[in-house]
Amino acid sequence: MTSETQASMQITALMVVWILGTSLVFPQSDTAATEKVAEDPIPCSKVCTCQYDDFISELNMYCSSRNVTQVPTDMPPSTYSLWLDGNRFTSLPAAAFRDLTNLDFLNLQNGQLTTIDPQAFKGLGSLAHIHLERNRLRVLPGTVFQNTPNLASLSLHNNQLSRIEERLFAGLSQMWLLNLGWNSLTVLPETAFHDLQGLRELILAGNRLAYLQPQLFQNLGELKELDLTGNYLKVIKANVFLKLTKLQKLYLGQNQILTVVPRAFAGMKSLRWLDLTNNKVISLHDDTFLGLHNLHVLRLSHNSITGIRPRTFRDLQYLEELRLSYNRIRTLGDRIFEDLGHLEVLELEHNQVQEAHVGAFTGLSHVAVINLSGSCFRTLPDQMFKGLPRLHSLHLDRGCLTKITTQAFRGLSGLRRLFLQRNNISVVEHQSFVDMVGLSGLDLSSNKLGALTTHTFSGLKNLEYLLLSNNECRQFLQNGTRQILPRLRYLDLRDNALTSWVPDFSDNIEKLLLSGNRWKCDCSTLPLRNYALRKSQVIPRLVETHAEGEEPDTTITIYNNITCTSPPRLAGQDLRDVDGEHFQNC
Fold first, then answer.
1. LRRNT domain: which residues (predicted)?
2. Which of 8-22, 311-325, 400-414, 542-556 has the lowest mean pLDDT?
3. Which CATH number fits domain 377-586: 1.10.760.10, 3.90.600.10, 3.90.180.10, 3.80.10.10?
């Protein structure tokens, strides 16, 4: 045996000994660990469940909905977050959490709390988040939060608070969220928020506030969102929001606001979203929105606005969404939207607009959606929508239209969807849609249309969806459908007065709805019968469709019958079920 072989065998023997030795150590280590766990279990209150997060070294204690009638006294001092929501105790005594110096999060929501001792949070110098919402609190001691200087968020919404003490939030300069919504507050001390210099979000919605003191928000220079929805405010005065230079969202909906004084929003150079819906505003001053250069969304729906002055929106050059629906605007004057060059959505539905000047929409070079549903035009002014190169969807449904003229939609080459349903339209002049080369969807249902010829749809080479149900059509494109509407995929002709029809479609057609007509089951409908039998997937007997007024995802199944009305012996029978011998002389 060579010296090299001997050395190799010695190394191998040493490795075996090392491996065996190591494997013998592991059971000892596991046993020691098990004994350590047995000796040192996670500390926890006997009525709660605890979880220790090794990664961030935090102890979380869960005592939610345990029918606890008083705050546990055996809580471990190392507790980081404490969940006591949904329990039955009605009060918090002094120093209820005195040993929890490490506590960061305290959840007391959905309980039966009626009183809190002024010293209840004594010792909680590290506490950052308190949830006290959905309890029965009527009043809070003025010094109750003096022991929580690091508080970052405080939720007090959905209680029964009728007032707050002037110094309730004194010293809470670290707080960024305060929710006082859905209480019974009628007035706020003028200096209530003066120490909250770091506040980012303030929710006061759902109270009974009728007045805002001029100095109420003056120290909230970092505030980004203010919610005053659902109060009793009647007037928005000047300078109330003057110091809110970083505010981005202001909600004032569902109040009783009659007047917004000129320059009411002066100084709000960062405001991006302003909601004034569901109020009683009658008029807007020329200077109402002065200085709101960064506003992107303005909602004024459900008010009593009777008209728009030409320069009302002159500073809103970056506005993207303007909602004016459900007001009392009867006339759209010349150039009233001229300064809104970045506007994308304009909602004017249910105003019963009767008149629009030719230049009413001048300047809306980026608008994509205009909604005029519920207006009361008899006819549309010629070239009413001229100069809207990016208009994508136009809503003129549920109105008083009786006629579509040749010049009404001139220039709308980029329009994709046109809604004209539920009017009284009986006449569509020839070439009315000739400029709409990009139109893919046209809804003319629930009107009074009679004969529809190839001239009616001239220019609609890209039309894919055509809805004509609930009209009085006796004739529909007897010849040339394939050429006039080469890309048509979906055609709804339900509930009309058709008696016969020769289908002539390209291979793009996917669905035909034909029920509710007056089909004569004779030689004139033989081409339709043959087509229906050959293309059963195009004219199925059952069709899934959207019920009107339902959510977009809700579908219903309807019968797609081709029911014979004559001859009498075939009345009530589906054309597809008529025996072929009936047509043998055709």
1. 43-81
2. 8-22
3. 3.80.10.10
In this chain, the answer to whether the domains covering 43-232 and 377-586 adopt an identical fold is: yes
How confident is the model at residue 482, as a pLDDT?
86
The tens digit of pLDDT for each residue in 58-79 reads: 999 999 999 999 999 999 999 9
Other beta carbons less than 10 A from residue 430's beta carbon: 12
Q: How confident is the model at residue 45 (pLDDT cuts 50, 70, 90)?
A: very high
Are 260 and 287 within 8 A, CB to CB?
no
Tokens 């009309």 -> residue: 496
Mean pLDDT, the chain, as a whole number? 91
Long-range own/partner contacts, residues 192-198 (CB < 8 A, 24 or more apart): 192/164, 192/166, 192/168, 192/216, 193/169, 193/217, 193/219, 193/220, 194/218, 194/219, 195/169, 195/170, 195/171, 195/219, 196/169, 196/172, 196/220, 197/173, 197/221, 197/222, 198/173, 198/174, 198/222
Q: Which residue has the higher pLDDT, 13 or 156?
A: 156
Q: What is the mean pLDDT of residues 105-121?
A: 98
Task: Tell how many helices (H) and how many strands (E) occur in the chain.
Answer: 3, 35
Q: Distance (Å, rounded) from C-alpha 406 to C-alpha 427?
A: 11
Instruction: At 143, list the tokens.
Output: 């010094």
43-232 topology per CATH: 3.80.10
- b/e string for 100-132 if b means 16 or more Cβ within 10 A? bebbbbbbbbbbebeebeebbbbbbeebbbbbb
Distance CA(159)–CA(178), nearest Å, equals 14
The phi and psi torsions of 260 (rounded to 5 degrees) equal -115, 110
- Prior bond of 567 cis (ω within 30°): yes
Q: CB atoms < 10 A from the CB of 552, how many?
A: 6
User: What SS3 state is found at 568?
Assistant: helix
Q: Where are the domains of the chain?
A: 43-232, 377-586
**β partners of residue 107:** 83, 131
Query: Which pLDDT tens digit goes with each residue over 171-199?
Result: 999 999 999 999 999 999 999 999 999 99
- Residue 555's pLDDT is what? 84
